[in-house]
Design goal:
Layout lengths: L16 H4 L6 H27 L15 H12 L3 H10 L8 H10 L1
Helix pairs in contact: 2-3, 2-4
C-alpha cells in the first residue's frame, strides 16, 4: 500500500472506541487488530527508508562525512508521514483491513 497517499491525520485524534468496536464486537480485539497492523506498517516503512538511505551509506573516509541534501530530504519526508498507528486506525475505519480471529472461527465450526 502507498502510505504517502493515505488520508490519515498527522496528529492524534480522539476516537470513540465503543463505536469503532462494532466490526469486532470487542474493544480489546479492535485495539489488537489496529496494533498488529501498525506494527506491520512500521516494519514496511522502516525497510523502505533503510533501502533508500543505503545508497548514501558508502563513505570511504571519516573526514569526508558531509551533509547530503537528498538524504536529509528523504529523512524529513518519512518523519512527516502519519504515524503507523494513525495509518492503521484510518485503514480500520475505512474497512480496508482484513482480519480474522481463529478462536471465533473454531467456535463457529464446533457449533456447526
Amino acid at each position: 500500500m502507498d502510505y504517502k497517499k493515505t488520508n490519515a491525520p498527522l496528529n492524534t485524534v480522539t476516537r470513540d472506541m465503543i463505536a469503532m468496536a462494532e466490526q469486532t464486537g470487542n474493544v480489546y480485539e479492535t485495539v489488537c487488530v489496529i496494533g498488529k497492523r501498525a506494527n506491520q506498517i512500521s516494519i514496511e516503512l522502516k525497510k523502505e527508508l533503510e533501502k533508500k538511505l543505503q545508497e548514501f551509506a558508502s563513505t570511504d573516509n571519516l573526514e569526508e562525512v558531509s551533509e547530503n541534501r537528498e538524504q536529509i530530504e528523504i529523512s524529513r519526508f518519512y518523519e512527516k508521514l502519519p504515524k503507523p498507528t494513525l495509518i492503521a486506525t484510518q485503514e480500520y475505519i475505512e474497512k480496508k483491513l482484513y482480519f480474522s480471529n481463529p478462536l471465533k472461527e473454531k467456535e463457529k465450526l464446533d457449533l456447526d
